[in-house]
Amino acid sequence: MDNKLIAICFLTISAIVLMLANFSSPPAQADTAVNSRDYQLITAKMQSGAEGLYVLDNRTGLMVVFTYDNNSRTLRPRAIRAVADAFR
To answer: Residue 63 is part of which domain span?
Structure first.
């Protein structure tokens, strides 16, 4: 066997393996929540279609919403409110 045939076989087998790995992995989701004693972090879709990061400070009772700004590539705070305001 010459080098071209070995390279073609190797590339074909690696392409098949990568295609099978792509179809067998679960898709990424951003609907998880992280909980500890001091903070809770939740990601969710916002009305504008962007992703929002909600951070709840359990000690102070404040919640802040962050969104990602593509232009400056930073997280920007959108709103800071008391959690009690959501239940009034």
So the answer is: 3-87
The reported pLDDT for the residue numbered 4 is: 92
Please check the confidence at residue 29 and state whether its pLDDT lies above 90: no
pLDDT at residue 50 above 80?
no
Number of H-type helices and E-type strands within the chain: 1, 5
pTM of the prediction? 0.54
Largest CA distance in the chain: 77
Q: How many domains are contained in the chain?
A: 1
pLDDT band at 5 (very low <50, low <70, confident <90, very high): very high
Contact (CB, 8 A) for 55 and 39: yes
Query: How, if at all, do strands 39-45 and 51-57 pair?
Result: antiparallel
Whether 54 contacts 65, CB under 8 Å: yes
Instruction: Using the structure block, give the residue that is written with the tokens 């690696």.
Output: 14
